[in-house]
Specification:
Length: 93
Amino acid sequence: MSLSTLDLAKARFNANAILEELQLDAYIYEVEPHNGDWELKIECACNVDGGWEMITLKVPKDMLLESDQVHSAKESLYAYWKKKLESCKLRSK
């Protein structure tokens, strides 16, 4: 597997941009590269009991790396992550 520091930094930047758009109240995350799909591990504050939840999502590497330039890739990731992170607490408006 050929992994560049630039790819990993870009993946983290793009993941954070989408997570910020989701307006989660509190979260930490990590992007873990693998040979095929990458993993996005998110710990977020939950709506229930003020606890935290760990959620791991499989993310196609190319889709994540292109999501800052390919609108359809970003929309797809946003919609999928929103569904999977629905138990996370959102920011107060």
